[in-house]
Amino acid sequence: MAVTYIRAPFHLDEPLPDLTWPLPASTVITAAFGPGGDRWERLAGLFDAVANAVAGADAVPVVVSGDCTTSLGTVAGLQRAGHEPAIVWFDAHGDVQTLETTHSGYLGGLPLRILVGYRPELIASALGLRPVAEDRVILVDARDLDPPEVEYLATAPIRHVGVAELSTVELPDRPIYLHVDLDVISPDDLPSVRFPAPGGEPIGPVFDAIRHVWNSGRVVGVGIACTWQPGHPDHSEKVRPYLEELFAEG
Fold this sequence. Notes:
250 residues, alpha/beta, 29% helix
């Protein structure tokens, strides 16, 4: 499958001028907001620009960013292009917190929960983002969960599986949004991510599982979250050959 690379060089609404990126970019998203203002409004402006770039892509869009919230714009863009994608979400964390349950208030812990319909007035409505049914979501790894996330996932129809287990799981029989937060890789390989989680699979087995999804032929959009701290070009260099090989296939 042919791909086109879109870069959103932000962590939330904060520019990342010093982050080293593992893939080139044919399109770079610039800040679609001015100083000040409500943070959700600022993010909506940024993600609307992402959605427009995704919807207008002439090949499978691969959106490379600094965190997972950019997925809101990516999925909105896929929906604008006529897809109603399922989600396969690789992450060391669950990203299914809510504003009512999070202790830190970190918005990067909410995107998957927003994608399945949590409080659309925050940002989804502004993007025209329609909720993805929970039974169309596979959460891969998520080895570092807060207690409210454990409680939620215990009853939600979301399938929660390990990296090694994914190859035995039936993927959704529909278009797929493939999301990869690179902190899913063991911190032994990528130690300087923003929120390292002990354990996890090495980089090789993680990409074997990602390739299983990509080779299904159902992927219509990809999000790559480069969640390492600026000043670590070695992380970019380590993942680059795996990503280049992945997207060269098919």
